[in-house]
Amino acid sequence: MKLPHLHLISFDLCPFVQRSVITLKYKQAPFEVTYIDLADPPDWFREQSPLGKVPILKVDHDTVLFESAVINEYVDAITPPPLMPDTPLQQARTRAWIEYLGEQTMTQYRWMTATDEAAFEMERHAASRGLERLERELAGDPLLAGHAFTLIDATLAPILLRYSLIDDIDNPWEPEAYPRLAERWETLRGMDAVSTSVPDDFAARLAAYLRAQKGFAPAHIASRLADTA
């Protein structure tokens, strides 16, 4: 099957973009990538992205897809064998868990960018509850507990990558508290599609991004990224 030309428009630190990079790389789909500055996006991006967000995927130079979950399903559909389950119920459940992980991604971002200690602590507790729920589900839900790589994993990996880089007692991610998630992360981090989905200096770039933000959490977390940067 001849694949269309795929061009991903990205921001190098965005976890939603990373989901799609992981999927494209895992499915071995050739793609071009362009990074933009989200703080000052070019006019052509404003015109092509209905929501003004990354990623967008240009298909054969003129058709634009937006929203990472949609992009991932499209990439999966054109690159057999599929990662999406073959029954409508399991497909719906996959989409539901991807949505859940989208919320966890935003919780993580709010924790990392909280302007004061109270908000930092509130978001840390919210993130911990989200991780606890995932740990419980990994115990018995075959959709999550299976060994094969899935579109859910492509969504989970960016979250766990960011937590794993932050060496801080206030980090919601405690591998010993979440042994099933920790085992899944060890598997994911060893995959080429995941390990090459961000720049080599990703920790340094993330630290620089946070240092440019205002408030308590960005400075606090950036300092905890310095040793990894």
Structural shape: globular
Number of strands: 4
**Assembly state:** single chain
Q: What topology, given as strand order, has the largest sheet?
A: 2-1-3-4
Range of helix content: 55-70%
Order of helices and strands: EHEHEEHHHHHHHHH
Helical/strand content category = alpha+beta
Question: How would you sum up this structure, described in words?
Answer:
With about 230 residues, this protein is an alpha+beta fold. It contains eleven helices and four strands; from the N terminus they run βαβαββααααααααα. It has helices spanning about 15-25, 45-50, 70-80, 90-110, 115-140, 140-145, 150-165, 180-190, 190-195, 200-210, 215-225; strands spanning about 5-10, 30-35, 55-60, 65. Strands 2-1-3-4 form a four-stranded mixed β-sheet, covered by helices on one side. The protein starts with 5 loop residues before the first strand and ends with a helix. The mean pLDDT is about 95.
